[in-house]
Amino acid sequence: MIPRSRKRNPASRRRKGSLVVVGTGLKAALHLTPEAREQISCADRVFYLVSDPLSEAWIKTLRPTAKSLFSCYIPGRPRMAAYRRMIEKILAPVRSGQRVCAAFYGHPGVAVLPSHEAIRQARKEGFDAEMLPGISAEDCLFSELGIDPVRSGCQSYEATDFLAYRRRFDPSSALVLWQAGVVGNLDYGGRPTRSGLRVLAQRLARVYGRQHEVVLYEASLLPVQPSTIRSTTVGELPTAGVTAGMTLFLPPRPHPPDSQMLRSLGLRQSDQSSFPFAGSRHRPDVRLFSCNSPCTHPAPRVSRPLQPS
Ligand SMILES: C[S@@+](CC[C@H](N)C(=O)[O-])C[C@H]1O[C@@H](n2cnc3c(N)ncnc32)[C@H](O)[C@@H]1O
Question: How many CA atoms lie within 13 A of 49 on its CB side?
Answer without folding.
Answer: 23
